[in-house]
Amino acid sequence: MKVALIQLAYDDNEPNAERIDRVVDLVEKQRGHDLVMLPELWSAGGFDYRAWSGAAQATDGVVAQRLSDAARSIGAYLHGGSIVERPADGSTGAEGKDLWNTSLIFGRDGRTLATYRKIHRFGFAGGEPKLMEAGEDLVTVEIDGTRAGLSTCYDLRFPELYRQYGDRDVELSLIPAAWPMARVEHWRVLLRARAIENQTFVLACNTAGTHAKTEMGGHSAVIDPNGVVLAEAGEGEEVLRAEIDPSLVAQQRESFPVLRDRRL
């Protein structure tokens, strides 16, 4: 499986419409890959809380339509990163809010295969918990016969989420993020930990650049089920490319069957 992770850099001066055009162009340049990934909240600004409401869209809105067309154009699966979702029907969540941090996954034919609403909201008393609803559902999706589990950024800090995905026979964890430079070493360690403890591939696509006065961490990575970093990006905008063999998951679990010894 050939994968391409687009570690997008942007700042506060780039108009939203121009960024969407630029991202679509970057996706369309990845023809020949089986799976392309984008980072979290790239179209709205990962830390630009004030812009979220104005940038919010439905899961079939302009961003989704453009990404769907791009996936169909190159015949690849596309993890579109995440959007600030506002449902078209005006519905709200349990806390009365109408925004979610929602990932979009498209098939080779451009169809929406899955959506995932981020479960763990970052910001403590502000940011996501103040403005957004929490997702409630674990979501898996089949990518050419490989079962992938979906999570987003801050979810990475909660190992129980990935353990539950492991119980669902997930072989590949897809993690878009807007992880800041201030805690980038946590990012790098936790990615390897999630791969090692669950014996899965991890594909993690982070953001670069600086926006809303926040320097982003970069260091997107592709990690194998033994915790080996197969490819890692630097700190700037970059397309990280790698080739993975999903059959290595079963091989690793058979040769080192640690998961059979779980007692709790």
TrEMBL record:
**Keywords from the UniProt entry:** Hydrolase
In the UniProt record, does the keyword Hydrolase occur? yes
Source organism of the structure? Yimella lutea
Domain called CN hydrolase: residue spans: 1-246
User: Lineage in the entry?
Assistant: Bacteria, Bacillati, Actinomycetota, Actinomycetes, Micrococcales
Question: Which InterPro entries would you find in this protein's record?
Answer: C-N_Hydrolase, C-N_Hydrolase_sf, UPF0012_CS
Which domain of life, per UniProt? Bacteria
| Name of protein | Putative amidohydrolase
The similarity annotation says: Belongs to the carbon-nitrogen hydrolase superfamily. NIT1/NIT2 family.
The Swiss-Prot or TrEMBL record annotates one GO molecular function as: hydrolase activity
Q: Which residues form a coiled coil?
A: none
